[in-house]
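ESCALATION

Customer reports they have been waiting on this structure for their group meeting. Please prioritize. Original submission:
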Amino acid sequence: MDETDLLVRLEMLDNMKGDFNAAQTSLEKLDLMELASDARALFDEAFVEVKSKLSRELVSLQRKNTDANSTTVRHSLGDTTSSGNVTIKTSRLPQLQLPKFNGSYVENVDSALLLKMTLS
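Update from on-call: job pushed to the front of the queue and completed.
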């Protein structure tokens, strides 16, 4: 599974919890004996277990992606045989400097035009 799959599954899981709670509440209104059942507790246990597993997998995948986006450079220290690792984080996109607007109407026109040109 990739990151998108995990995010969709987490969203579906949250929706499922809402649906379960609504259904359980309706059931409890129809049958007061259902109030004594442990259905909510069992569902909550299963929900926490599944959501925890999906969340851990997502974090692990995000860490792998972060590690894949950084560059590791090896260098040797003089004549010795030891070597060290230097991790250089690289970003995928350059920093974009946006114009700042100070609230003046006169400068608003210039700022708006400059922003449009910067983003296009």
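Sent to customer with the following note: The mean pLDDT is 76.
Escalation resolved.
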